[in-house]
Amino acid sequence: MTVDACAALVERGDPDRFLAVMAAPMAARARLFPLYAFNLEVARAPWVTKEPMIAEMRLQWWRDVVAEPAPRAHEVAGPFHALIGAASLPVEVIDRLIAARQWDIYRDAFADEAALDTYLDDTAGGLMWLAARALGASDQAEVAVRSYGWAAGLAGFLRAVPELEARGRIPLVDGRAQAVRALAAKGLMRLDRARKASATVPRQCRPALLAGWQAEGLLRQVLADPSAVAEGRLQLSEFARRGRLLWQSLTGLY
Questions:
Q1: Has this prediction a pTM greater than 0.90?
Q2: CA distance 123 to 193
Q3: From residue 214, how far is each of 51, 94, 138, 219, 237 by CA, in Å?
């Protein structure tokens, strides 16, 4: 039950977030790795079985981990439980993040765009807010952090559309080019909102936002070429990926 074990899990299962954490100061890594390992475990719970009941039980197991006063003997649950206490993480935000993953279990489409918005806010937005809180952010930073997290979550979700469809899911409420372009524009508006409120995010908390370093580039790609989503071409060049992460980690700007 070590941070190193959590780091190894993230490196294997979520390499983009692993790179983001490795670009952060050492002190931040000790808190971000358990959080991101927890998120990875929850995110993949609906996909490791074809039985919805078993997937529901896996998510409930994690909800119980959060609710119980004592840690469980598990390579991720132990360090994550310790982080909840050490950083006073809001358990209601964690619970909503877990509950939102129920959508991944079933093959139902989102009821409407508002339902997709909520899903992104509870998953990506909630995760980035938890990361910021783990690094000491106050409630004043929530709007900026959640807005940035939502935009980053949308970019990642759009990149995953072909895989989700291959697994029998219906990720987009409206898959027409104009609707996909409008989603990207909404994501860029959220990024703009986050930047306008950047003064509310202390410098020491900004490593929490490194996980969204690709968001703007990906969303601008969609805006210019929405067909890239369905065709699985949504990807930054390696030079752009590395350069943007380096710039953001050095400047603290996002």
A1: yes
A2: 19
A3: 34, 24, 25, 9, 10
pLDDT digits (tens, 9 = 90+) for 98-146: 999 999 999 999 999 999 999 999 999 999 999 999 999 999 999 999 9
- Whether 100 and 59 have beta carbons less than 8 Å apart is answered as no
Pair 127, 96: CB distance under 8 Å:
no
Among 9-13, 21-25, 66-70, 217-221, the range scoring the smallest mean pLDDT is 66-70
Residue 116 token pair: 């997709």
- What are the structural domains, with CATH classification, of the chain? 3-251 (1.10.600.10)
Taking the CA atoms of residue 32, residue 34, residue 38 and residue 41 in that order, the dihedral angle to the nearest 10 degrees is 110
Q: How far apart are CA 62 and CA 58, in angstroms?
A: 7
As given in the structure block, the two tokens for residue 180 are 């996909």
**Separation of first and last alpha carbons in the chain:** 33
